[in-house]
From TrEMBL:
Organism ancestry: Bacteria, Bacillati, Bacillota, Clostridia, Eubacteriales
InterPro entries: Aminotransferase_I/II_large, HTH_trans_reg/aminotransferase, PyrdxlP-dep_Trfase, PyrdxlP-dep_Trfase_major, PyrdxlP-dep_Trfase_small, Tscrpt_reg_HTH_GntR, WH-like_DNA-bd_sf, WH_DNA-bd_sf
Similarity comment: family membership: In the C-terminal section; belongs to the class-I pyridoxal-phosphate-dependent aminotransferase family.
Pfam families found in the cross-reference section: Aminotran_1_2, GntR
CDD domains, per database record: AAT_like, WHTH_GntR
Keywords linked to the UniProt accession: Aminotransferase, DNA-binding, Pyridoxal phosphate, Transcription, Transcription regulation, Transferase
GO MF annotation list: transaminase activity
UniProt organism field: Clostridium ganghwense
Name of the protein this chain belongs to: PLP-dependent aminotransferase family protein
Length: 467
């Protein structure tokens, strides 16, 4: 406890001096990553200050990213610089793999379908047909909402004409859709609820808006609604970000009952649901039925975002969103201010691809191919990794989320670094939490970019490293 002693200066508030002192100890590694800080009462007694001073000091450390509070357990140190260095390292290795060295690695980080399944010849023929039909018009700017033909196709083929095409906005992928919605609806210090853990791209958008982020624990059938209700009672939540199918990273899918419960909560507590419909095309478990939050929404509470890039071809950067009518004009203006228009040629080509039935047949082929990989990886995780990990079978999607057994003295960053030396790339769980320490025992394994042979070899390597 001696390291916590410090001489106070009169001109600076004591809570700031205490926070700064602990921050220096963390940076100097005199307080280790994940080390429990003294209890509020114990540190107040040691430094001869009142408990409110320590509470404010710990809040300051949390705001600056140097500490994390675990309810019922205490406050823990978080090495901010170490986390920043890891993010750089992860980004660097991910760029290497994405940039052409993929053959040298077993890549378990993929979030999009593999290019080997993409029907290049079919799409090339569609592009030629569009150019023959439209000529130079195929390259002109479209209505800011998007190409009218594509919006009609989305309405007819995906929504059975139940959605107004004038309320569909074409965007350059789900990430841009989330960003546009955030710019339209979220201001500094607004309260946002997210799943815990959640998609890091969305988390970064909300942090960029300087929103207050409340996390709700994910269960197998969606978030813990008991905990969510407690948050709603104490805080005015503006928006709840949700991934309805095969949530990234947990793989959880919301039950119909829980969707209805959350929709009722949205009406009761006056918040909106930002639904990211992620990989719902890849359902492998016959017990899982497709019904989005949006399709169940009778009070116009759901902002629906869908990416074509994840499931179709990442390079086309295409998706769409459907806002509540109340926010249509605001979101459309935000789209115009963010990005004047999404590629006209690609919109027209995707429209024709859907209308001529290619989309439906491609999804059928993709689902069959990935079903085999899914079953193989699930069996390998069970048979090879055994009790070294814990996981739930997602029933679809493109990844599994694993927890390293508590009996194994290793966290996900250590596993990541060991795997990297063996040319195996995994996604550490720390990327998916507001406070990275919460994800230190988790990692995600994606199978979108790995064939059967690589899955088998990669899991054997992970097994060896976990022993």
């Amino acid at each position: 406890m001696e390291k916590y002693f410090l001489g106070f200066k009169d001109e600076i508030p004591k809570y700031l001096q205490i926070a700064k002192h602990i921050e220096k100890l963390i940076n100097a590694k005199k307080i280790r990553e994940g080390e429990r800080l003294p209890s509020i009462r114990a540190l107040a007694k040691l430094l001869e200050v009142n408990t409110v001073t320590i509470v404010n000091a710990y809040k300051q450390l949390q705001q600056k990213g140097y500490a994390v509070q675990k309810i019922g357990s205490g406050t823990y140190a978080k090495g901010k610089e170490e986390n920043r260095n890891f993010l750089k390292e992860y980004s660097s290795i991910y760029k290497k793999v994405s940039g052409g060295l993929v053959k040298d690695y077993i890549d378990f980080t993929g979030e999009t379908t593999c290019s080997e399944f993409f029907p290049v010849d079919t799409f090339k023929n569609v592009l030629n047909k569009v150019l023959d039909r439209d000529g130079a018009d195929a390259f002109t700017y479209q209505n800011a909402l998007g190409y009218e033909g594509l919006r009609e196709s989305i309405k007819n083929h995906f929504w059975e004409k139940k959605i107004d095409s004038e309320n569909i906005v074409i965007v350059s992928g789900a990430q841009q859709g989330i960003d546009i919605v955030s710019k339209s609806l979220i201001n500094v210090n607004d309260n946002i609820a997210v799943e815990k853990p959640t998609y890091s791209g969305a988390l970064n958008v909300f942090k960029g808006r300087r929103a207050n982020i409340f996390e709700v624990d994910m269960l197998k059938d969606g978030v813990d609604t008991v905990s969510f209700r407690k948050i709603l009672k104490k805080n005015k939540i503006n928006c709840f970000y949700v991934m309805s199918y095969f949530q990234n990273p947990t793989g959880s899918t919301y039950s119909i009952e829980k969707k209805r419960e959350i929709l009722n909560l949205a009406e009761e507590y006056d918040f909106y649901i930002l639904e990211d419909d992620y990989l719902s095309e890849l359902i492998f478990d016959d017990n899982i039925k497709y019904e989005s939050f949006k399709s169940l929404d009778i009070n116009d509470r759901v902002i629906y975002v869908k990416s074509f890039s994840k499931i179709f071809l990442p390079g086309i950067r295409m998706g769409y969103l459907i806002p509540p009518y109340k926010f249509s004009e605001r979101i459309q203006n935000s789209k115009i201010n963010t990005d004047r228009t999404t590629s006209s040629l690609m919109q027209r080509a995707l429209d024709m691809y859907i209308k001529e039935g290619y989309w439906k047949s491609h999804m059928k082929n993709l689902s069959e191919a990935y079903r085999d990989r899914y079953k193989f990886m699930k069996k390998n995780i069970k048979d090879v990794l055994g009790d070294k990990v814990e996981f739930n079978s997602p029933g679809g999607g493109l990844h599994f989320y694993l927890k390293i057994s508590d009996k194994i003295n290793m966290n996900c960053l250590e596993l990541f670094n060991k795997c990297k030396k063996e040319k195996v790339i995994i996604t550490p769980g720390v990327l998916f939490y507001k406070n990275s320490i919460d994800g230190e025992k988790y990692f995600r394994l994606g199978f979108s970019q790995t064939d059967i042979d690589k899955i088998e070899r990669g899991i054997k390597i992970i097994d060896k490293l976990l022993k």
